[in-house]
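Q: I'm building a small set of examples for a reading group on sequence design. Run inverse folding on the following structure and report the sequence directly after it, with nothing in between.
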C-alpha cells in the first residue's frame, strides 16, 4: 500500500549528525543489529573505504527499514527495536553528504524523494550548507521536518535555533517538542502533542520512559503548546474553531493539521535530541510517518510527451504505464552499472524491456534489487512510489527517464552545478594510459559534476570537479579501486566563455566523401543571456518536411560547438542560439553535413560576438572566534574578496563573503595562521562573472 510508504532523505551541513542519526534509525527499526559510529569508521551507511577513513559521507547511500508507530505498539511495550505488529510502515532512507563538494549527491537525492529530515546543529544553528540544501528542497517542493541535534553539546540552544531557522530560511518552525535541560543537563524532551515527558533508558536508548510533565516545567510547556496551537490556527480552520469554542484539541486533530501544514510547506515541525547519546530518534521516526507524505500524496510528477509535444502529469499508480527516473549510477566490478531508479508510475519486473525516451534506445532490466547501503536483496517487482536498483542497462545516464515505447514521456532532468576547479592527471607508466581513461569514463558516468577531457595540444588528461576535496577523493578512488597510480598537477581554475553582443550568421558546408556530396546551409542568431541562464537553443524553422534527424544533427552541432568554447577552449555558457533558416536537399543533405555546418557556424558567430572570459566566484562562509574577526575580514579583503555580512553566534561569529576562485587556493592555510587554527570555513560556487583584467 502506497499509504504505508515513505521516501525520505537526511540532509544537513557537514558534521551536523546525519549519518549518526541514520545509524540510530536503522538500529531502532531492527534493520541493523549494532550502532555504527562515524568516528570509529564503522557506520553502516558510510561503506566506502574513504568515507570510513575521512569520517565524512561522500556518496548518498540508500536503505529500506520498517517501523511501527510508538502509539501503535502493544500495551506496555516501550522498546522501539524489534517490536512485533502488523502495521509496519516502509521507509526508504537516503543518507546524503554534507560537504559542499558533494552537493550533486544531495541534488539528485532530493529530486526523487517525497520528504526530508533537515538536521540542525543545536550550537551552530543554520549553517551554510544547510541553506544550500534547503534551497534545493524548495526547488523540488519537498516537505520537511526539522531535528535539532546535539542538544547535549556546550552552547546548545534549541530556541535560538528556531529563531535562526525563521530568519535565514524564511520558514515558520513549529516546535512539537521542547528539550528538558540542555548541554550536560539534557535529559529528555516534552511532547507538546500528547503533553508528556519522554526520557530514554537502556544501554542503547532502546527503552522510552513516558511521564507526566513536572510541575516546574508546566508553565514553559503550556507557553510552547500555545505557540504551536497559534501556528496551527493560522492555517487550520478546524483548530481555530475548536480553540475558540473551548473544545479539547485531541492529539489526532493536531497531528492531522500539522501534517497538512508540513505537506504544503507552511510549517516546519521541529523536534530535539542528541543522537550520539541515543536520545530523540524514535519520536523522529514517528514524525517521519506522521508528517511526511506517502508517494501518492505528493503533486503528480510533471513529464513531457515527445510525440504529442505537450506536458503531461504522471500520477503515482502501480497499475499505470511504467515510468521511472534514473537518479544515480554506481559502477560495480562484478555486476556492472547499478542504476538507482525511482518509479513514478507502473510496475517493473526482472527481464522487462524498457525504453529510454530521451535517447530512443531499448534497455533490459536483467535484475531488480533493494539496496541496503552496499548490500542488496533481489526484488520480484518494483512499483510506483518505490526506489530500487536495476542491473543490466548499458546506455542510461543520470537523469534519464525509462519507460514504455508506447508512452514516450520524459521527466524533468536534474540540474547540477558547474565544475569550478581542474587538474591534470597522468598515469605513472605509459602502459596504464588507456586504463586511466577507462576509469575516468566510469567515474564521470557516476558523478555528473566530474568531467574529463583530453587537451587538444598537449594530449594531457584534464579532470574537473567541485573542489580540491572532490578531486582528491576521485584520485584516491582511482588508486584504490582501479589499482592505478596517478600523478596530479596543481589545481587550476575552470573558466567559462561567453559573448557580449548579438550576431546573425549564415553558414554553408559542402564536402565530398567517398564520392558522395554532403551539403548543408544554415542561418543562426546568437545573443548573450543573463548570467546563470544557461545555454538555450531554439529552432524557429520547423515543419518544412525536413526529417527530424536533420534537426537533431543541427542541435548536436550547436551543443558541441558551445561545449568546445570560442577562443580558449573553455565551455561557452549563457548563450542563446536561434536557428532562423535551413536549406535541405534529399540528394546531398546528410546528418554529418548539418552537424558540421552548425558547429562551424556557431564557432564563427560566437567569435564575432565579442567573446569574454568568465571566472567562478565562490560564496565563502567563515566561522571564527570573536577575537579574530578583524584579522579574518582583513584577510578576505586582501584576497580581493567582498564581505557581505557578519552574524554573531554563540561563541563565534559568521562572516559571509564572495571571492574569486583563483584567489582562494591556499586560503585554509592563511586562515589558520590569522586565527591560530581556530577558524573554519566552507566554500561553494556562487556564479560566473567577467574576469577582471590582471
Amino acid at each position: 500500500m502506497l499509504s504505508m510508504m515513505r521516501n525520505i532523505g537526511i540532509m544537513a551541513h557537514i558534521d551536523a549528525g546525519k549519518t549518526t542519526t541514520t545509524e540510530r534509525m536503522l538500529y531502532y527499526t531492527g534493520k541493523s543489529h549494532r550502532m555504527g559510529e562515524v568516528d570509529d569508521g564503522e557506520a553502516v551507511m558510510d561503506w566506502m573505504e574513504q568515507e570510513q577513513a575521512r569520517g565524512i559521507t561522500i556518496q548518498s547511500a540508500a536503505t529500506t527499514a520498517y517501523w511501527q508507530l510508538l502509539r501503535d505498539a502493544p500495551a506496555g511495550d516501550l522498546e522501539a527495536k524489534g517490536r512485533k505488529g502488523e502495521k509496519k510502515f516502509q521507509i526508504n532512507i537516503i543518507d546524503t553528504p554534507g560537504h559542499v563538494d558533494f552537493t550533486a549527491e544531495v541534488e539528485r537525492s532530493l529530486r526523487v524523494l517525497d520528504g526530508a529530515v533537515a538536521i540542525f546543529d543545536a550550537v551552530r544553528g543554520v549553517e551554510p550548507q544547510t541553506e544550500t540544501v534547503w534551497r534545493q528542497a524548495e526547488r523540488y517542493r519537498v516537505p520537511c521536518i526539522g531535528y535539532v541535534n546535539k542538544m547535549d553539546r556546550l552552547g546548545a540552544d534549541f530556541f535560538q535555533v528556531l529563531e535562526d531557522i525563521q530568519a535565514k530560511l524564511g520558514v515558520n518552525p513549529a516546535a512539537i517538542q521542547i528539550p528538558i535541560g540542555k548541554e550536560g543537563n539534557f535529559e529528555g524532551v516534552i511532547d507538546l502533542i500528547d503533553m508528556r515527558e519522554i526520557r530514554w533508558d537502556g544501554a542503547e536508548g532502546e527503552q522510552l520512559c513516558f511521564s507526566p510533565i513536572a510541575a516546574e516545567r508546566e508553565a514553559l510547556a503550556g507557553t510552547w503548546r500555545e505557540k504551536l496551537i497559534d501556528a496551527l490556527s493560522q492555517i487550520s480552520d478546524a483548530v481555530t474553531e475548536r480553540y475558540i469554542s473551548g473544545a479539547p484539541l485531541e492529539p489526532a486533530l493536531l497531528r492531522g493539521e500539522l501534517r497538512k501544514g508540513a505537506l504544503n510547506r507552511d510549517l516546519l515541525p521541529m523536534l530535539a535530541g542528541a543522537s550520539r547519546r541515543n536520545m530523540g530518534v524514535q519520536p523522529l521516526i514517528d514524525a517521519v510517518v506522521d508528517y511526511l507524505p506517502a508517494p501518492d500524496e505528493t503533486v503528480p510528477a510533471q513529464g513531457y510527451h515527445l510525440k504529442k509535444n505537450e506536458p503531461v502529469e504522471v500520477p503515482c499508480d502501480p497499475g499505470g504505464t511504467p515510468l521511472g527516473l534514473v537518479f544515480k549510477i554506481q559502477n560495480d566490478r562484478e555486476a556492472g552499472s547499478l542504476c538507482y531508479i525511482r518509479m513514478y508510475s507502473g510496475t517493473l519486473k526482472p527481464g522487462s524491456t524498457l525504453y529510454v525516451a530521451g535517447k530512443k534506445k531499448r534497455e533490459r532490466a536483467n535484475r531488480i534489487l533493494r539496496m541496503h547501503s552496499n548490500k542488496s536483496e533481489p526484488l520480484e517487482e518494483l512499483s510506483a512510489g518505490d526506489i530500487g536498483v536495476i542491473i543490466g542497462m548499458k546506455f542510461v545516464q543520470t537523469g534519464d527517464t525509462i519507460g514504455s515505447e508506447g508512452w514516450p514521456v520524459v521527466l524533468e532532468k536534474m540540474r547540477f552545478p558547474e565544475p569550478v576547479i581542474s587538474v591534470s592527471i597522468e598515469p605513472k607508466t605509459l602502459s596504464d594510459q588507456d586504463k586511466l581513461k577507462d576509469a575516468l569514463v566510469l567515474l564521470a558516468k557516476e558523478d555528473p559534476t566530474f568531467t574529463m577531457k583530453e587537451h587538444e595540444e598537449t594530449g594531457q588528461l584534464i579532470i574537473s570537479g567541485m573542489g580540491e576535496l572532490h578531486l582528491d577523493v576521485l584520485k584516491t578512488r582511482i588508486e584504490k579501486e582501479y589499482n592505478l597510480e596517478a600523478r596530479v598537477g596543481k589545481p587550476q581554475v575552470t573558466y567559462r566563455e561567453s559573448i557580449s553582443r548579438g550576431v546573425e550568421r549564415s553558414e554553408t558546408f559542402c564536402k565530398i566523401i567517398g564520392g558522395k556530396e554532403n551539403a548543408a546551409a544554415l542561418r543562426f542568431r546568437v545573443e548573450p543571456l543573463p548570467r546563470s541562464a544557461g545555454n538555450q537553443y531554439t529552432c524557429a524553422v520547423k515543419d518544412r518536411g525536413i526529417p527530424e534527424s536533420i534537426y537533431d544533427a543541427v542541435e548536436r552541432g550547436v551543443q558541441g560547438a558551445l561545449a568546445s568554447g570560442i577562443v580558449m577552449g573553455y565551455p561557452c555558457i549563457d548563450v542563446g542560439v536561434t536557428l532562423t533558416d535551413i536549406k535541405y536537399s534529399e540528394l546531398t543533405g546528410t546528418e554529418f553535413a548539418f552537424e558540421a555546418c552548425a558547429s562551424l557556424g556557431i564557432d564563427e558567430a560566437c567569435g564575432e560576438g565579442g567573446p569574454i572570459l568568465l571566472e567562478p566566484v565562490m560564496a565563502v562562509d567563515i566561522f571564527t572566534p570573536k577575537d579574530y574577526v578583524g584579522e579574518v575580514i582583513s584577510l578576505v579583503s586582501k584576497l580581493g574578496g567582498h564581505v557581505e555580512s557578519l552574524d554573531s553566534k554563540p561563541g563565534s561569529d559568521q562572516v559571509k563573503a564572495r571571492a574569486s576562485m583563483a584567489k582562494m587556493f591556499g586560503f585554509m592555510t592563511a586562515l589558520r595562521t590569522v586565527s591560530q587554527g581556530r577558524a573554519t570555513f566552507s566554500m561553494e560556487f556562487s556564479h560566473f562573472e567577467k574576469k577582471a583584467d590582471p
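Residues 38-48, 50-58, 74-78, 80-86 have pLDDT under 50 and may be disordered.
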